[in-house]
């Protein structure tokens, strides 16, 4: 099925309407539904495990809450897209869109003509200023449409499609600022990712080949801990040696559930950083939600609904 220009314009393109905004996180782990009102305050937050007809569940909630035609940001689970680091093409204006597609096509396992691609640039001083770099996210247009169509059918007005790495960054950027850089580790089933942030900007994001499926609370998790530590330490070393950045002083991990506390304890002991679970209660916008577990499990959807704290990254569609 062909994808119209209207579909592609939603890719990384949040419109500021002055109204409230629904944030949805879709993925194999379940459906998170959040709502931020026009004042930027989170007033609804629910996570639903992957069972039954989630599209009908969403439609029922939209009808019940009267959210028809409400702006909606959708955050994709990392399983749906590739995230590629590449040099920023030495072109300007509209030419960069085609140039980004050309640069990433060799890394795709499907024809680039079938891809929806968007990118965001890294700060000027990343990689010691030697070369401008960017991250490009790519997925099949048909996959994007299959994920968005049921959401629009529910009555919501999808005007932004986000990736998990940037949705989580929207939360990190709202935490109280202290000296030094911040690491944010997000773990899913089967995989995860780490963001390294300084002065509110993402300098490095990297997929982790370790997930919560390898962690079992209450038993010996030595192999899991060793693998996770190695992945994080590699990222920290790369951040200092290749990007030329300073020392990371804080690390937040997600999900910060009671059963994942041993992960935080281990990382704190091994890394020598200030390690803490990512708790949305630290953000003033989430004060109206009393169920902390719902907040934790819906973190990326909350980040999508909130949007960027400040526009550090230039984000554009190249589709």
Automatic annotation (TrEMBL):
Protein name, per record: MSHA biogenesis protein MshI
InterPro entries: ATPase_NBD, FtsA/MreB
């Amino acid at each position: 099925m062909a994808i119209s220009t209207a579909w592609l314009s939603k890719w990384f393109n949040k419109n500021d309407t002055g109204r409230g905004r629904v944030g949805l996180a879709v993925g194999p782990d379940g459906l998170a539904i959040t709502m931020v009102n026009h004042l930027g305050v989170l007033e609804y937050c629910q996570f639903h495990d992957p069972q039954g007809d989630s599209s009908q569940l969403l439609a029922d909630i939209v009808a019940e809450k009267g959210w028809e035609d409400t702006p909606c940001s959708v955050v994709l689970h990392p399983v749906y897209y590739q995230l590629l680091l590449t040099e920023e093409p030495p072109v300007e204006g509209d030419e960069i869109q085609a140039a980004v597609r050309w640069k990433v096509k060799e890394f795709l396992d499907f024809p680039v003509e079938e891809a929806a691609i968007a990118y965001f640039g890294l700060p000027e001083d990343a990689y010691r200023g030697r070369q401008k770099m960017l991250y490009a996210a790519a997925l099949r247009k048909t996959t994007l449409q299959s994920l968005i169509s049921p959401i629009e059918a529910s009555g919501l007005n999808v005007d932004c499609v986000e990736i998990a790495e940037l949705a989580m960054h929207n939360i990190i950027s709202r935490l109280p600022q202290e000296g030094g850089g911040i690491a944010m580790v997000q773990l899913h089933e089967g995989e995860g990712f780490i963001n390294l942030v300084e002065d509110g900007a993402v300098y490095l994001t990297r997929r982790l080949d370790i997930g919560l499926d390898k962690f079992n609370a209450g038993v010996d998790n030595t192999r899991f801990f060793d693998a996770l530590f190695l992945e994080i330490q590699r990222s920290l070393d790369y951040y200092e040696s290749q990007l030329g950045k300073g020392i990371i002083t804080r690390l937040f991990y997600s999900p910060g559930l009671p059963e994942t506390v041993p992960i935080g304890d281990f990382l704190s002991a091994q890394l020598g950083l200030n390690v803490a679970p990512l708790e949305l209660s630290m953000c003033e916008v989430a004060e109206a939600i009393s169920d902390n577990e719902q907040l934790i499990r819906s973190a990326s959807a909350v980040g999508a609904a909130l949007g960027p704290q400040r526009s550090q990254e230039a984000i554009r569609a190249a589709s």
